Structure formats: C-alpha cells, structure tokens
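ok so I'm stuck.
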Amino acid sequence: MKLFVDTGDIEEVRQAAEWGILDGVTTNPTLIAKTGHGFKETVLKICDLVPNGAISAEVVATDYDTMLKEALEIHSWHPNIVVKVPLIEPGVHLVKTLSDKNIKTNVTLVFTVSQALLAAKAGATFISNFVGRVDDISDEGMVAVSKTVQMVENYGYDSEVLVASVRHPLHVVQAVEAGAHICTLPFKIMSMLFKHPLTDAGLKRFLSDWNDAGLSIFPKEA
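replied:
not stuck anymore, here's the structure
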C-alpha cells in the first residue's frame, strides 16, 4: 500500500520524505490556507521535496468552466501534480474531460460506493474515500472503502482507492485489510506508526546490555 502525507506544511513533507517511505502528498484548500503561503509556491516546494511522488492540488471553483480553467492551470505547474476534484456533478464532468486529456485526477469527498462508482467511470486516477468523518457520525467509514476496492477490482477500473480522513493508526491497519491502494495520513498519525512500547523497551534493554559490556562497533584506539 502506498503512503501519502496529508499536509500543506513544507517541514512535515520534508521529514516524511527523509524517512524514505513517502509515495506522495495530498493537500486541500484548508491545509494550504493554514500555511500562510501562496498555493503555487507551496505546491511546487512539495514537488521538489517528493520528486517521484504524486502531489494532489485541488481546484476551488464549483462550476465546470471555471473548474476546467483552474485544473489546466494547476496541471501546468509540474508533471507530478494530480488535480484534485470534489465529487459534485461538475466535478465528475471535469474528471472525464481531464481523463480524456491524460491528466491525472484525485476525486475527493467520496463517502459512498455509489459516489466512488461515478468517479471510477469518469476515469479518476485516485478515489479518496473518507473514513474519519463517517465514523464521526456513528457509521463505519471503512465499509465503503472495502466495497469500493471490490468494485474497482470486479469491473477492472484503473482507479486506485485512497483512504482519507484518517484519524488514528487503526485506520491504517483497516485500510491494509480492505486492500486499499493508498492511505493518506496527517503527519502526526504517520509518526505514530513507528511507536510501540515493546519496541521502546526492547531497544532500551539492548543498548543497556551493550553499554554494560563495554562493546563498540568501531575498533578502539590503542
């Protein structure tokens, strides 16, 4: 499963990229607004930090003609940019247009299998299934993810299922179990994947025993 970081923070992208496990970055208008920097400026810095990754940048218009103009502008900035489009009627129309032009898209704010079906049929590169926001209203967001993966595989769509709105590491595990292609995580959640109390305890014991024995990897100077 590919791992994306969901952020507009350049330093978070830089650190996640240094770990060597990052496949891409997702942004949205809220995340970009939090940076206090320009949209294009931020997106291009992210592209530089993740040169082989897919970088999602979202249109903000809601009518087809303006969405198309924004999408073509965003696409022109860098070859690794994926145009992010909301799952609304003009958005699905836009995804079909962009797909016909071989422009990659990420359809966002998808909550149901029926919505995901529309995105897949329009030619979406990524289908962003939100889980946390569904869990927040006492439903199970991962159910739609699992069914969307099955739908994509059954019908041979080229779309990849991207799990979004991730709130904790268990969502990552559930995404793996559902067979999702991608999971995009806030930096804080990605950092938590490293953590386990037995790892910390085991490392502490290893280092204590090593130091008590006076051992060294490098030859001691005479």
